[in-house]
Amino acid sequence: MSSVIKVNACVYSRKGYERESNANSFYMNGKFMSEQHIDNVQASMENRGTEYLFTVADNMNCSDDDKDTHISILKEINRYHEKITVSGGDIKSKIKELESKVSDISRLITSFLEMSKVPAEDPRWGIGFGSLLISDGQFVAATAGNCRIYMMRDGMFRPLAAETSRAKRMIDALIRSETAEEQEDVTLPDEDPDSLVVVSDIYDVAEGDSFLICSDGLLSALGEEKIEDILSLRSDSSYIAFRLVDEAMKRSSSGDLTAMVVQVERRYEGSSVRRSQARSKQVKNRVDRISRAPAITYKYSRKRGGRYQGALYAVLIIVTVLALFGIMYIIINSMINTGKDTAKTDPIPTITATPTSQPTSTPDPVYTPDPTDGPPLVDETPTPEPTTAPDGEVRTHTVAKGDTMSKIARTYYGSSDYALKLCEYNGISDPDKIIIGQKIKIPPVEMLR
Q1: Are 394 and 267 within one domain?
Q2: Looking at residue 187, which CATH number applies to its domain?
Q3: From the CB of residue 301, how many other CB atoms can be counted at a distance below 10 Å?
Q4: Which of 159, 262, 361, 404 is least enclosed, having the fewest CB within 10 Å?
Q5: Is residue 257 part of a domain?
Q6: Are 205 and 137 in contact (CB under 8 A)?
Q7: At what angle do helices 419-426 and 405-413 cross, to 10 degrees?
Q8: Is the pTM of this model over 0.70?
Q9: Phi then psi for 57, rounded to 5 degrees?
């Protein structure tokens, strides 16, 4: 019988203060896979399933283009995860295969560093690996090098797959062995003595379990006590992972910082087919109970219906009246604004023509009729027309309220294109700074071309 586990997980990874690049990498159940050289990265996931694989690695990706050598632990982990997902099997066989792969990769990287003659103090020698495998309601942890895995259950904090756990199991095996006195070396059951990977015992998954897979830089910066305090917080995985890295960044740490937090939210027992059958059976029983129940009779109350109907009518009338008042207000306000806009028209510019000398002409003789000739005639004096400057003369315009150089040019020349040339002619540097009463000389258009 398989168990469906609902988990939420989050990982934060940041480059250390004394590192040129982030050598940590992680793998989150095939959804997120981070290679090295990513200085700051964060990823989170939430899923329901029967099998999960979470991994953090340190300095387990290396390459040499000259020798055409490329080693990546994450690519091997991805192939391994795809294989166990398709082929299946029990959790013990799965962790044995993972242990073998990690041991081979670790030996290969160590040989590569030795052949490259990398100094012993180089950070690339700090190889680390930590992985958590959850399968069919059980989990097992595996570590190698400087990565660590911790577990929090019911307020109890404990490390998983540590060297102390291996020593304890070795002592237990020594005590249980009947021929321990005759053996020089003690080998743990189902464990390779030459393996570089420490594998924990297999446990059942429980709701509320929290796991932390961290790098050596995070552990050296915070210590196990501080990690226990933060991991015991009643918060989601995103906040706990961020808090761990943030607290480590406040301290002096030379290594890269990576914290992957995995929380078990729910555990569903049994297969989905059984759950669907049980659910359909419950629905059927509920329908049968409803069909056997007596019919429900309703007593209609005319007073209650009339009261609700009257209240509804009152609300509709109030809303209608308010809407009418609003429409009337908008119409009146628009009419008032239209009147204000009409009143604010531009004043007609006053044109002052410069008086010019007119040629004197001899007045025509006035005929004076004889009084005896007839009734007196009305003396009709012709109305004088305004004199304008002849072509080629310069006129003068007095600036009135609302005048602009563009408007003056449009008035005299029929186009506002002459505004700038008119400013140059009058020595005006800024067309917007003319004042009321200022005299503007209006030359002929030929002089502005």
Answers
A1: no
A2: 3.60.40.10
A3: 9
A4: 361
A5: yes
A6: yes
A7: 100
A8: no
A9: -130, 150
* End residue of a domain, out of 272, 289, 309: 272
Q: Are residues 10 and 155 in the same domain?
A: yes
User: Is 208 inside a domain boundary?
Assistant: yes
| Both tokens assigned to 82 | 């795809």
| Domain end call among 222, 246, 272 | 272
Residues 6+ apart with CB under 8 A from 272: 4
The count of structural domains within the chain is: 2
Token code pair at residue 266: 């729910």
User: Given phi > 0 = left and psi -120 to 50 = alpha, else beta, which region is 40?
Assistant: beta
Question: Structural domain of residue 184, as residue ranges?
Answer: 3-272
For residue 264, being part of any structural domain is answered with yes
Task: Show Cβ contacts of residue 53 under 8 Å, excluding neighbours closer than 6 positions.
Answer: 27, 29, 30, 77, 81, 131, 132, 133, 134
81 has a pLDDT exceeding 50 = yes
Place of tokens 């939420």: 8
Structure tokens at 268: 């569903």
Q: Amino acid identity, residue 35? A: E
pLDDT of residue 290: 62
Domain annotation covers residue 358: no
3-state class (DSSP) for residue 384: coil
Q: What is the pLDDT of residues 223-260, one digit of tens each?
A: 999 999 999 998 899 999 999 999 999 887 778 899 99
Q: Can you tell me whether residue 336 is helix, strand or coil?
A: helix
Average pLDDT, the chain: 78
Distance (Å) of CA 329 to CA 163, 326, 332, 333: 84, 5, 5, 6
One domain for residues 268 and 404:
no
Single-letter amino acid, residue 38: I
The CATH number covering residue 423 comes to 3.10.350.10
pLDDT score recorded for residue 391: 55
C-alpha 170, offset from chain centre: 51
